[in-house]
């Protein structure tokens, strides 16, 4: 049974440390008896650990798995960012969309290792070389406040950082996370620091703080473990049938967008820790400063004995026989639940009680997308699969904290008999839409904007649509009554995948999806372009669709009236957009007037097998750009790598672009293409390039033009990327406004058909480029550009061009995959010049 605790009293949840951390693709199945016994064993311990690092996949999943499943500690990972600035191995998502994926991957990892998850508002703006650069872009005070807030909410006994506050040979975000954690350790205990938080939480003094170090930080010298704290973590857990190492590998493998699939390293493993501050434990054991037994709580000795008795008498064939003892324990814990540790254990015990009773419940909607102002139908299904006395006192439908109706039911439930309750009601048209709370306001470069203090830190929105249930479970003449919440899912049965669950989402009655979020007009495409929008309706009625543009941009027609059918029906509408004569970039927005309301939302569904489906509802806006870009007609073949939007954007400039399937590289006629381009990380992800790169080199030799975009410097399918040797490295330019020097001023790449100037490097986003080669054949490759981040030596590997036979080969680490979707004019002009190479020489 999946359970997310009551949404209404959010402040209470913050104080007791119950977080909305779970990411599940479906309601959780019932536990087997071994799992129940494993959870009972965890009840014996009341320690807490907060683990702090910078990004998704920075956390030490092996240590978290050990802390949760062997030590029985409540363990939370605080990732300062959502990984928005990284790269995506599994698809084309960048920035906010990638942050959504990596957030869910973290939550799925926690669902494996048993930990909880928190975030700060820091925006992952991309690779940072120093902590100073990071603090220049992040709002240091706000990020520090978010860590203080997490410490005060969670009340850890120990804080562990993944990175050192002094080790500098790493990502700037990494070191920054440790520096801020050091400060927050003391600030959380100081009532003069962030006093506005104290209306919800109290100050908190953590006992000790450590750096979770390893040989990785000492790769350039001997890793000396003398003087370090250590603990063995390679423990086998019979009740789970897995070792800590296996749990960790499963959790790590959830980070699929990072390519972190892992094989378990079974056997002995030791984690090392360097003391940072607070109480210094004895005997090189970081846990020696923590009393993790029930004796730390007044009256806890008796509780500990009750738990031991339940464990010793537990019958794996009949877990329901333990219900009486568990209910008596529940009675003891309730009066003590003002203590934050007891409150957590009480909720854990209630879950165990439901599992021992064999209760399975799920709440489903007949629709995945619930339009405001329309009717909804919710079904609550329940079965008691063990011989247990379970009653439902009441069940209510709650939407955004507001009760919309009660399910009518008989209170008595017969064992192993399905009980189905139904409720139909209308969703008020003032209901807030679904969507990630940190994206409700336009984010800054370094920070997300979240005004509501109680939302800060949460990994995702509290579920909007829930069924709130009150149960009474009786055994041996005594009973326990408690409440829980069931998220509402939509369920469909696929003939191949069987049941597929998706969380029910609240949406506008009408959504407008532009077919492109960017319209580019070059010198040869200044005539009007079609703007096609897909109108998706969830309610039936009449709607007027309008496109609003700034002065100078002409839209035709001014509006379109449409009869919309609802039920997810879609129809395409087409407008004409004509740019002004002058070069400029602008934003236009599309809105729909329906039922007396105006809606301006598009939708984006992110769907991968390893995470729950995600829905984004951004504003229905389109960037339009009239650029001074000269092109000619070219036929381009594109080899898709990890995924990017470059092919569609090139089509907007008038190029004909054809995707070259990887499995056709060995047989397709390459000569028909005037230009071939490989997408980002193609040489990391397209195995066929290992066997067919010689064909591409032959294509160049015979007069073709081949452009290779950036590849990571590891996991390459072949080292022979170009016609002459080159070696991708981790060299990059992270400052998007860094000075660019033209090394080969007369090279056609800087001259024709667009004269490249310093102005073409204005307005770049996130970075200049990444994974430049650090070694290449200096006779045959010509470096075109030189650039440097502040305080560093200039690098000249961002753009290398070679003449090979009759053709041209280009290798570039410049981040065109970010700049083109952002509408950066200079990036278009330079990329077009690379496409046009060879034309001016003919």
- State the helicity in percent bands: 10-25%
**Percent range for β-strand residues:** 25-35%
Q: Segments where pLDDT lies below 50 for 5+ residues?
A: 1-21
Q: What assembly state would you assign to the polypeptide chains in this entry?
A: single chain
Distance separating the two termini: 70 Å
Description:
- By secondary structure, this protein is an alpha/beta fold.
- Strands 10, 12, 13, 14, 15, 16, 17 and 18 form an 8-stranded mixed β-sheet that branches.
- The protein starts with 9 loop residues before the first helix and ends in a 7-residue tail after the last helix.
Which terms summarize this structure?
disordered N terminus; alpha/beta; 842 residues
Summed up, what is this model?
It contains 16 helices and 42 strands.
Topology:
Elements: H1 10-16, H2 33-42, E1 48-53, H3 61-69, E2 74-79, H4 95-113, E3 116-119, H5 131-137, H6 140-154, E4 158-161, H7 172-187, E5 208-211, E6 229-232, E7 236-237, E8 242-243, H8 244-252, E9 270-278, H9 300-312, H10 323-333, H11 340-356, E10 359-365, E11 369-371, E12 375-384, E13 389-399, E14 402-406, E15 419-426, E16 465-475, E17 478-494, E18 498-503, E19 505-507, E20 510-514, E21 518-521, E22 529-537, E23 540-548, E24 554-556, E25 559-565, E26 569-578, E27 584-594, E28 597-599, E29 604-606, E30 614-616, E31 621-626, E32 635-639, H12 646-652, E33 656-659, E34 675-678, H13 682-685, H14 689-701, E35 705-708, E36 726-733, E37 740-742, E38 769-776, E39 782-783, E40 785-787, E41 799-804, E42 807-812, H15 816-819, H16 825-835
Parallel strand pairs: 1-2, 1-4, 2-3, 4-5, 10-17, 11-19, 21-31, 32-33, 32-34, 34-35, 35-42
Antiparallel strand pairs: 5-9, 6-9, 7-8, 10-12, 12-15, 13-14, 13-16, 16-17, 17-18, 20-22, 22-26, 23-25, 23-27, 24-26, 27-28, 27-31, 29-30, 36-38, 37-40, 39-41, 41-42
């Amino acid at each position: 049974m999946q359970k997310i605790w009551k949404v209404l009293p959010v402040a209470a949840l913050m104080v007791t440390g119950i977080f909305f951390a779970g990411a599940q693709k479906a309601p959780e199945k019932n536990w087997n008896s071994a799992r129940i016994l494993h959870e009972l064993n965890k009840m014996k311990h009341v320690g807490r650990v907060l683990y702090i690092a910078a990004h998704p996949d920075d956390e030490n999943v092996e240590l978290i798995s050990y802390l949760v499943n062997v030590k029985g500690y409540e363990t939370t990972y605080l990732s300062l960012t959502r990984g928005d600035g990284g790269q995506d191995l599994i698809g084309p998502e960048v920035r906010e969309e990638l942050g959504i994926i990596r957030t869910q991957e973290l939550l799925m990892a926690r669902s494996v290792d048993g930990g909880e998850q928190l975030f700060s508002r820091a925006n992952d703006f991309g690779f940072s070389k120093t902590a100073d650069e990071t603090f220049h872009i992040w709002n240091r005070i706000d990020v520090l406040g978010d860590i203080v807030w997490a410490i005060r909410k969670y009340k850890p006994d120990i804080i562990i950082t993944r990175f050192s506050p002094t080790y500098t040979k790493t990502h700037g975000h990494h070191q920054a996370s440790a520096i801020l954690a050091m400060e927050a350790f003391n600030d959380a205990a100081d009532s003069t620091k962030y006093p506005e938080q104290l209306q919800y939480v109290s100050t908190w003094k953590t006992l000790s703080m450590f750096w979770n170090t390893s040989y990785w930080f000492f790769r350039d010298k001997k890793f000396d473990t003398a003087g370090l704290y250590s603990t063995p973590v390679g423990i086998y857990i019979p009740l789970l049938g897995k070792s800590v190492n296996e749990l960790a590998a499963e959790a790590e493998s959830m980070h699929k967008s990072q390519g972190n699939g892992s094989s378990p390293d079974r056997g002995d493993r030791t984690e090392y820790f360097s003391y940072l501050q607070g109480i210094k434990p004895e005997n090189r054991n970081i846990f020696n400063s923590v009393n993790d037994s029930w004796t730390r709580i007044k009256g806890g000795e008796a509780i500990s004995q009750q738990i031991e008795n339940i464990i010793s008498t537990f019958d794996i064939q009949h877990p329901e026989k333990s219900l009486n003892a568990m209910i008596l324990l529940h009675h003891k814990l309730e009066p003590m639940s003002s203590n934050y540790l007891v409150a957590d254990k009480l909720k854990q015990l209630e879950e165990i009680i439901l599992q021992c009773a064999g209760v399975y419940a799920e709440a489903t909607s007949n629709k995945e997308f619930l339009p405001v102002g329309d009717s909804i139908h919710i079904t609550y299904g329940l079965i008691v699969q063990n011989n247990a006395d379970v009653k439902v006192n009441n069940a209510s439908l709650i939407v955004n904290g507001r009760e919309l109706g009660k399910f009518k039911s008989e209170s008595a439930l017969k064992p192993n008999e399905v009980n189905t309750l139904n409720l139909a009601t209308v969703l008020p048209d003032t209901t807030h839409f679904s969507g990630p709370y940190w994206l409700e306001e336009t984010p800054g470069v370094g920070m997300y904007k979240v005004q509501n203090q109680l939302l800060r830190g949460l990994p995702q929105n509290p579920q909007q649509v829930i069924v709130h249930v009150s149960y009474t479970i009786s055994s041996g003449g005594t009973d326990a009554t408690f409440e829980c919440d069931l998220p509402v899912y939509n369920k469909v049965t696929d003939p191949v995948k069987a049941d597929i669950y998706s969380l029910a989402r609240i949406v506008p009655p009408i959504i407008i999806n532009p077919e492109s979020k960017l319209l580019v007009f070059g010198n040869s495409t200044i005539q009007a372009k079609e703007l096609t929008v897909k109108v998706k309706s969830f309610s039936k009625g009449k709607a007027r669709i309008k496109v609003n543009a700034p002065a100078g941009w002409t839209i035709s027609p001014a509006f379109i009236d449409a009869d919309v059918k609802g039920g997810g029906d879609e129809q395409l509408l087409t407008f004409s957009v004509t740019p002004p004569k002058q070069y400029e970039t602008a934003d236009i927005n599309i809105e729909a007037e329906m039922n007396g309301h105006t809606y301006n939302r598009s939708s984006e569904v992110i769907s991968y097998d390893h995470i729950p489906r995600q829905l984004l509802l951004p504003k229905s806006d389109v960037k339009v750009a009239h650029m001074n870009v000269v092109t000619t007609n070219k036929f381009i073949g594109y080899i898709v790598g990890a995924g990017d939007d470059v092919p569609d954007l090139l089509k907007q400039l008038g190029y004909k672009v054809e995707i070259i399937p990887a499995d056709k590289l060995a047989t397709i006629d390459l000569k028909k293409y005037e230009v071939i381009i490989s997408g980002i990380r193609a040489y990391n992800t397209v195995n066929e390039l290992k066997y067919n790169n010689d064909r591409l080199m032959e294509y160049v030799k015979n007069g073709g033009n081949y452009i290779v975009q950036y590849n990571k410097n590891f996991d390459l399918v072949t080292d022979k990327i170009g016609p002459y040797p080159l070696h991708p490295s981790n060299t990059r330019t992270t400052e998007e406004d860094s000075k660019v020097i033209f090394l080969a001023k007369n090279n056609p790449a800087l001259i024709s058909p667009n004269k490249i100037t310093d102005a073409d490097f204005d307005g770049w986003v996130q970075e200049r480029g990444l994974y430049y080669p650090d070694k290449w054949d200096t006779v045959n490759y010509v470096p075109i550009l030189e650039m440097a981040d502040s305080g560093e030596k200039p690098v000249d590997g961002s753009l290398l061009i070679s003449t090979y036979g009759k053709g041209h080969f280009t290798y570039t680490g410049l981040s065109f995959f970010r700049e083109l979707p952002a509408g950066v004019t200079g990036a278009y002009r330079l990329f077009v010049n690379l496409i046009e190479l060879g034309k001016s020489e003919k």
